[in-house]
């Protein structure tokens, strides 16, 4: 895995890129890819995103829990139902603080499908003469992981969300008819003052990378270092075939998946002393776990704070979990549930806005409440 860290002040530089016809998301236009790489390579960051997504999702929409036939809740051609879409959305929002929702309509201007597009693929298109950006560019190689060149011919250009029938009519006409119309994109951010919102991991990118580098160093020590290695000192072999037979025998005796390394030294001359003719010696490991404890603990704490998670919910030490009462744990859960209310509301309002005009009655009650993770402070 390659993680490219760029200068702090320029990491989320948002400028119009004339060459690519988009507003670049980061100095290299690959900020979402950097965020995903950091999250997936940092055990603490991944745990934070997993936990925050659970506190946004709760137990799903309350109205959907009582519906046995989940096929009636399917919201797009992929066969995803309303709660599955919510789960996908909350995971993306927890990591990126941005969402791109793709909406399709029928000729009655009703929404026929809603799906999520990855932040790695979505970019805001150029402004028109009035300063309005009415297009989104969907493309799967902004980070150039699939090729060094941006291919505009592969752009998927989609209109910005606007449910006004007159606007949809104009978009359909411009596309060349309903059979060529690609629908609209609703872009949601946690900070509406910015074109693209910062991820929660932004302030701790180096801490997340430090976790990855520490794990990589220890792994390299196990794979390429002297951990579990043996030194064999033997008398001179009489022939190459004898030497090869000995090496094959040693290979047969090595541990699982050849995990134990062997260093073979052949004496220059024979000796009458047995210890000089054949010697097996352990080679000590060069890995010192204590060397990383302080820095790893500091990095984990900073990452947890960046994602706003109480230590009792994520740290598994005896002092933080088993040393505290169940009441303190419940209070922490309640506090974190309350802290995520604004983000939950952003998502709920988007679902309510889109599905209130859905072609089939997904939620006749129009109650979009999310079931909490726990019902009361005394019962989970």
Unreliable stretches covering 5 or more consecutive residues: 318-322
Structural class: alpha+beta
Oligomer: single chain
Total beta strand runs: 11
Strand arrangement, major sheet: 1-2-5-6-7-8-3-4
Helix/strand order: EEHHHHEEEEEHEHEHEHEHHHH
Spatial gap, N to C terminus: 39 Å
Tally of discrete structural domains: 2
Report helical residue fraction. Answer: 25-40%
- The average pLDDT score comes to 83
Q: What overall form do the CA principal axes indicate?
A: globular
Largest sheet: 8 strands, mixed
Work out the strand percent: 5-15%
Count of DSSP-assigned helices? 12
Cα-atom radius of gyration: 29 Å
Walk me through this protein's architecture.
The chain is an alpha+beta fold. The chain has 2 domains: 8-204 and 343-355, no CATH class; 228-283, no CATH class. The chain is 38% helix and 14% strand. The chain is built from 12 helices and 11 strands. The chain has helices at 31-41, 43-57, 62-65, 82-96, 165-175, 205-224, 240-253, 274-277, 290-306, 311-314, 326-339, 341-355; strands at 16-17, 22-23, 98-105, 111-117, 122-125, 135-138, 156-160, 184-189, 229-234, 262-266, 278-283. The strands form 2 sheets. An 8-stranded mixed beta sheet has the order 1-2-5-6-7-8-3-4. Strands 10-9-11 form a 3-stranded mixed beta sheet. Strand 9, helix 7 and strand 10 (262-266) form a beta-alpha-beta unit. The longest helix has 20 residues, at 205-224. It is globular. This is Phage portal protein.
